[in-house]
Amino acid sequence: MKSSSILVNVARGPVVNSDDLYDALKSGQIFGAGLDVLTGEPNVKTDHPLLHLDNSDYDTRNKMAELCVRNAIQGANGEQLLAEVKV
After folding, report:
1. Is 48 one of the annotated active-site residues of the chain?
2. Which residue, of 51, 69, 85, 86, has the greatest Cβ tally within 10 A?
């Protein structure tokens, strides 16, 4: 994979070798990963290396929560939404 690649796994945790993924992310071999699942779920240990990378999902979740609140405020004020899903 290119160093700009983002691996996405929405299948099963064991499809991706977590140790190899950690090494690839840590070394910059790939840019990122979007994971819906991890090997061992639902009992993933809190010391799992992927959960302690500098760019782990805590920042992403916080940004998503902030965007959600800002969208709700914009909508309540009758203003254009910052992120709108059109159906």
Report:
1. no
2. 51
Distance CA 72, CA 24 (A): 38
83 pLDDT band (50/70/90 cuts)? confident
Alpha-carbon gap, residue 87 to 83, rounded angstroms: 13
Mean pLDDT of 65-84: 92
Domain boundaries, the chain: 1-54, 56-87
**Both structure tokens of 36:** 């819906």
Active-site residue (options: 26, 48, 52, 70): 52
C-alpha closest to that of 79 among 65, 87, 71: 71
pTM of the model: 0.62
Q: Please give the Cα distance from 74 to 87 (Å, whole number).
A: 19
Question: What residue spans of the chain are helical by DSSP H?
Answer: 18-27, 57-76
Contact 37, 28 (CB under 8 A): no
